[in-house]
C-alpha cells in the first residue's frame, strides 16, 4: 500500500538523517506522499555515544548504520546521498551540490549543528569537537598518539605536556569525554605501557559556568563533580578559555601545556538560515514558531538543533535527541493532517529527563522530582542508550561491548588509523630502555 | 623473571609487528634479552580478513588490536611507534624517522610487503590494493560510493560503469574480494536500493594466469571458478591488464568501463633490501639463506614477505601467514640457542594447507592429498580464521559477525567515512522519483 502514493502527488523532502529527520520520515511511513531523504553521509549516527568512539571503547559501525538499511522496508522514501547548497523557495526546490534539484511540497530541514568556536575558528584545528565519525576517529587518533609519544619521550616537561588532556566545556559531552579520557589514560592504558604510569597523566576539564552540567539540578551537578574528581579529573570552574594553540591552552589567565585539547563548549546551527534567508539567533539557529515554521513559510519545517524554538516555559528547547525526534514526528503528523484536511493539536514537548554518564559505572539522571546518581543512574543510562540505538545488530553489539569493557577495562577499538605519522624530529632525546636505545648523534 | 634481563645484555630489535615479527617477539618471551619492537602503526592487523573490512562485513577493530595490548604481559619487550628509515650495519643501529636510533645485537626484519604495480605506479590511485586498514576503508568507500552514485544516475551507460567492479588478480585475495563484492552488490544491497536491482551490477575478475588460485590443485581451481560464476562473477582468464584509468580498464585488448577497480595482482617487499644494501629479487624481497640471514650478515634475520627464501623443494616459500610465523619463531629460537651456545636443527617449513573462501558459505581447502570444497571447506575456513585471530575479544566479535552476516546477509559496517564528497557535477541528469526531482537547468 505504501508504494502506491499517486505519481505526481505530494512530495516531502527531508534534509538530514539525524534523529529529527529520521523520525519525520518514519512517521510518514503510511502517508500517501513521496519522500526524498537527503543526507551528505550514508549513515545515521547515534551521536550520544560518539565520545565512546573518540575514546576507543566502541567502533564507528557500532553506533552508525546505513540510512538505506534503516529505511529499507519503507517503500515511500528514496534516500539520496548529496549535499544541499541552497533552497529556491519560489520554485520550491532544494538545490544540490550534484547540480540536481529536489522539488518539494513540504520541506523538513533537520541538518543539526556543528561545534562553534564563538568566532575563534582558528582554534578548530587545535581543539577538535566531536560531531561526526570523522571527528571522533580524529580525536581518538590524537589521544592515542599523545600516549604513544609520551611513552617514548624522555624530556620530563614534554612528556607532561603530552600526557595532559584538556576538555573545554562542562556540559554532558564535556563531562562524558573527560570521564572517558581519564579512564583511558589512567586505567585501561596502564597495563600496556612501560614508561607511562597511571598517575603521569592529567585530565583537565575547563568550564566557563560555575558548575558542570548546568542543565541539571545543583545536587546532581555536585555528584557529577565528585565523580569526575574521583576519576582524577581536575575541574576548573568559572574559567574562560582565552587562547588555544598546538601546544598549550590559556584559561583563566593560566597556561596549560598540552597537545590534546578537545572542544565541547558550544554548537551552532547548520547554514539553513542562509538557505532560506531567515532570521537566525546568535548560535545560527533559525527562529521558528510553535509548529516549527520559519516566519511566513508554512511549507517548511525546521526541527532539532537547526531550530530555535521556545518551549512551554518560554525557554528554548534543549539541543537533545528527544526534542528532535518529537519535533520530527510532529512535522510528519502536521503534513499528514493537512493532507486529510484535519487539524492537529499544538505541539507539546514531553521531557523524559536528562542523563549524563561519568566514566565507567557512574552517571547522573534528572527526572524533575527524582534524581539518580552513581550506579543506578549508570545502569539506566546504559539501558536507555542501548535501547534507542537503531537496529538490532548495533544494539546487541554495543550492549556486548559495554558489558565487555565494563568487565575488563579493555578498549578494544584502540586503533590509530590514517597514514603513519612521522614522529616529530624536533623531539628531544631518545628512548631509554636498558641499553637498547642509543642517542641520536 | 622475564623482567630481569641484564641491563646492557643482548638487545633484539624486531621491525614490524605482523605475523612474523609478533611470532618472533612472543617466542622470545622467556629469553634473557631486551626486545624493542618497532612498527609504524600501533596495531597488529589480521590481514587475511582485511577484504571483509573492504566489503563492509567487519569493522577495522574486529581484525586489528593494539600491539601493546597483545604484548602487555611480556615484560622483556618495549613497543615503539616509529618508522625505520635505514640501518647502520657497522654500528648495529636501526635509524628511525624520529631521529632516534635503536641499537641491536640481533635484528629481525619483518616488514612485510606492499602491492606492486609492476612499474605502473600511476595505476595505484585508480586501482587500490588492500594491505592496511586505510586501504580497506578506502576500498569500502569506493565500492559504496559507486553504489550510491549508481542509485541516482539515470544515464544508462554511466550507471552501468558505476555498477561494474573489476578485481585484478586471481590469487586468494582477488578471489575472496571478487566473491565478497559480488555478494555485496548482488544480494546484500538489493534490499536497500530503489533503482539498483541485483542483476544491474557486474563483477569482473581478471587473471593473467589460465586459472584462478594457481597455487591450488587444478580441481580446486575449477571448483573456485564454478563458485565464482555461481555468485555472478565474470572471470576472464589468461587476460593481461594493459591500462587502468579513472573510468576504465583495458584488459586483453578490451575496454571495460568501470569506476571501481581493485588491485590484487602482486606484491613487492618493503625497502629492507636498500636499508642493508642487500640483493633483492624482482619483487623487492631480500634473498636469505636457510637460517633467514642475508648474505654475510649473521646478526640480521629477514622473514616473512620481506624475504625470498627457498623451501625444501627449491621453490620459494609462499607469502602467507604460516610461513612468516614459523620463520619468526625459528629466528627467535636461533637467538635463544646462540645465547645458550647450543646448535639449532635446520628450519623446516611445515605446510598445513591452503585455504581460500568464495563468498558466503563456499571455500576451497588444499591439504596435499585431501582437497575440500563447498560448505565443509567454508566451515573449516571460518574456524581457522576465527581461531587464529589475536585476542579473545576479537575472536568472539568476528565469530559473532560472521555468523550474523551468514544468517542475515547483512553488511553492518557499510559506512562511507571520510569527509563528504561533492557528487560529480558533470554527472548527467537528475534522479527520477515520481515528480520529486526536477531537472537541473
Largest sheet of chain A: 5 strands, parallel
Query: What assembly state would you assign to the polypeptide chains in this entry?
Result: homodimer
Low-confidence stretches of chain A: 1-6, 422-441
Record field, number of beta strands of chain A: 25
**How many H/I helices of chain A?**
12
- Beta-strand percentage range of chain A: 15-25%
For the largest interface, the chains and their residue counts are: A-B, 83 and 84 residues
- Which term fits the overall shape of chain A? globular
Q: Architecture of the domain at 2-40 and 82-115 and 267-339 in chain A in CATH?
A: 3-Layer(bba) Sandwich
Structural class of chain A: alpha/beta
| CATH class descriptor name of the domain at 2-40 and 82-115 and 267-339 in chain A | Alpha Beta
Mean pLDDT of chain A: 85
Helix content of chain A: 25-40%
CATH superfamily of the domain at 2-40 and 82-115 and 267-339 in chain A: FAD/NAD(P)-binding domain
Determine the N-to-C terminus distance of chain A. 77 Å
Amino acid at each position: 500500500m505504501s508504494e502506491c502514493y499517486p505519481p505526481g502527488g505530494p512530495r516531502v523532502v527531508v534534509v538530514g538523517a539525524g534523529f529529527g529527520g529520521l523520525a519525520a520520515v518514519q512517521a510518514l511511513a503510511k502517508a500517501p506522499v513521496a519522500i526524498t531523504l537527503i543526507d551528505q553521509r550514508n549513515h545515521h549516527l547515534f551521536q550520544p555515544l560518539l565520545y565512546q568512539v573518540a575514546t576507543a571503547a566502541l567502533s564507528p559501525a557500532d553506533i552508525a548504520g546505513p540510512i538505506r538499511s534503516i529505511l529499507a522496508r519503507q517503500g515511500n522514501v528514496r534516500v539520496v546521498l548529496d549535499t544541499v547548497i541552497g533552497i529556491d523557495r519560489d520554485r520550491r526546490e532544494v538545490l544540490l551540490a550534484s547540480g540536481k534539484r529536489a522539488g518539494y511540497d513540504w520541506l523538513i530541514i533537520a541538518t543539526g549543528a556543528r561545534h562553534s568556536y564563538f568566532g575563534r575558528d582558528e582554534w578548530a584545528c587545535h581543539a577538535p569537537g566531536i560531531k561526526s565519525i570523522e571527528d571522533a576517529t580524529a580525536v581518538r587518533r590524537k589521544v592515542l598518539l599523545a600516549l604513544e609519544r609520551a611513552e617514548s619521550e624522555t624530556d620530563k616537561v614534554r612528556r607532561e605536556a603530552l600526557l595532559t588532556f584538556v576538555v573545554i566545556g562542562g556540559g554532558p559531552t564535556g563531562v562524558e569525554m573527560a570521564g572517558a579520557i581519564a579512564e583511558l589514560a589512567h586505567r585501561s592504558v596502564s597495563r600496556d605501557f612501560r614508561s607511562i604510569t597511571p598517575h603521569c597523566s592529567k585530565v583537565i576539564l575547563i568550564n566557563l559556568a560555575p558548575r558542570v552540567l548546568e542543565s541539571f539540578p545543583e545536587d546532581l551537578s555536585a555528584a557529577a563533580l565528585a565523580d569526575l574528581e574521583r576519576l582524577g579529573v581536575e575541574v576548573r570552574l568559572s574559567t574562560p578559555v582565552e587562547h588555544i594553540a598546538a601546544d598549550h591552552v590559556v584559561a583563566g589567565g593560566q597556561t596549560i601545556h598540552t597537545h590534546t585539547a578537545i572542544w565541547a563548549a558550544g554548537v551552532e546551527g547548520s547554514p539553513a538560515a542562509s538557505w532560506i534567508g531567515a532570521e537566525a539567533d546568535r548560535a545560527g539557529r533559525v527562529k521558528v514558531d510553535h509548529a516549527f515554521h520559519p516566519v511566513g513559510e508554512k511549507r517548511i519545517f525546521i526541527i532539532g538543533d537547526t531550530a530555535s524554538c521556545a518551549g512551554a516555559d518560554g525557554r528554548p528547547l534543549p539541543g537533545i535527541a528527544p526534542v528532535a525526534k518529537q519535533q520530527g514526528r510532529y512535522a510528519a503528523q502536521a503534513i499528514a493532517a493537512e493532507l486529510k484536511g484535519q487539524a492537529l493539536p499544538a505541539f507539546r514537548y514531553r521531557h523524559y529527563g536528562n542523563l549524563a554518564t561519568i566514566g565507567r559505572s557512574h552517571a547522573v539522571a534528572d527526572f524533575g522530582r527524582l534524581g539518580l546518581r552513581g550506579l543506578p543512574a549508570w545502569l539506566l543510562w546504559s539501558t536507555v542508550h542501548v535501547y534507542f540505538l537503531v537496529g538490532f545488530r548495533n544494539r546487541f553489539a554495543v550492549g556486548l561491548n559495554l558489558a565487555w569493557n565494563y568487565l575488563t577495562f579493555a578498549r578494544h577499538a584502540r586503533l590509530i588509523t590514517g597514514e603513519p605519522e612521522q614522529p616529530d624530529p624536533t623531539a628531544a632525546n631518545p628512548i631509554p630502555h636498558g641499553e637498547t636505545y642509543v642517542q641520536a648523534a
